[in-house]
């Protein structure tokens, strides 16, 4: 029985933890060749060993996707191994919770480098490959805070807003190439990143997890649930969608204007 991503090759940046890890497992279950890219060598190798039990066609690249030469090398390595790149999931991300006044230039630059520059660089390397192949899919991770503002998160909100419009602009440019480009806008999701975010605010580790009870669904999201949305956008199930910012947040933005 064929699976939805059979014969497809997918690169997942930030794939060693959280949403990236959950997506890597799901893509592997659906038949894809999965390439996990992350700076966390230990976790990356651990995820590969877990996924090999499902699908042996997975490997890990330890690399920093904020560097253009690294991105070029990743694309070349994947092509040498699998001959094509069908899906790019730009998922790597960090957060810094602070106001403008409390954000240093270095902190601002780091958030923008990881959350925006890496998406630009990886897309720049992968799109020509997809053009030659006759098409492909890019999914970017934005955030609900890429659509509405959030307090004490200026660099994060700016970066995720940039991802939303980067997605739309690329979709306009590359629809003619049969390359679909969408983004997901998750709400609070149960990951280590969310716990780190709470501690940056000087709050207990589970503070933001508990705050998720205020959403209409009255719970926090699971990485596996976000992964299902990524699979939808990466698969033929969304074949007439491009330039879309899909909100997956338990109803958190349902009452926003």
Proportion of helical residues: 40-55%
Instruction: Give the N-terminus to C-terminus distance in angstroms.
Output: 45 Å
Strand order, sheet with most strands:
3-2-1-4-5-6-7
Rg measurement, Å: 17 Å
Q: SSE order, as H and E? A: EHEHEHEHEHEHHHE
| Unreliable stretches covering 5 or more consecutive residues | none
Number of helical elements? 8
CATH H-tier superfamily of the largest domain: NAD(P)-binding Rossmann-like Domain
What structural category do the secondary elements indicate? alpha/beta
Say how many strands there are: 7
CATH level-two architecture of the largest domain: 3-Layer(aba) Sandwich
Question: What features would you describe in this structure?
Answer:
- The model has no long low-confidence stretch (mean pLDDT 94).
- The protein has eight helices and seven strands.
- The chain is α/β, with parallel strands linked by helices and 257 residues long.
- It folds into two domains: 9-186 and 224-239, 3-Layer(aba) Sandwich (Rossmann fold), CATH 3.40.50; 188-220, no CATH class.
- It has a seven-stranded parallel beta sheet with strand order 3-2-1-4-5-6-7, with helices on both faces.
- Helix 1 crosses helix 8 (223-234) and helix 3 runs parallel beside helix 4 (105-133).
- The chain is globular and about 45 Å long.
